[in-house]
Amino acid sequence: MDEQANVEPIFEPAQVEQSPVEQERANPANPQLTRVTAENRVPMGGPEQQLAVPEIEGYVLHWFLDSPGRIPRALAAGWEFVNRGEVQLVDRGYASNPGGDGNSDLGSRVSVYGSPGDRGEAVRQLYLMKIRKDWYDSDMALRQKETDAVVAALKGGKVGLSEEAAEDRQHRYSHVTMGLQRKR
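RESULT FIELD:
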């Protein structure tokens, strides 16, 4: 029995106590923690815009709901996905790392979970996309031109097609008082 007492164990786990911060840093799967300082702290209870992101120079940013056909249409119009590292999101995770980027996408795209719809729909992703500022300005100018034409038609009393026949004008909706007479 004396011989067995002198035998050293083959494997002995290290008995090193680590703080939670050290444990986070020890796991390579966890991103580095950002130390909270007086300059970067966010007070509790203060207003916070959940979808606020910093600007990307030369681009216009917009959150697109992942509804059928919406993302492919945006891609066809020249919008591009914003990738991790381009912006820092407001981190909304319950147990997430304070230094995390707030992204819910497992890939490289920037996305967050949206709210469920009014009809009990499933929660869908919101994807952050960007478009070149000159393309955006061109699209908005085209939209404004169409809006100006509608406003001019409404102000000028020309609602409908410009080739509207005279007999069709009498069937427009307008404010008319109808008097009902009662027979005695």
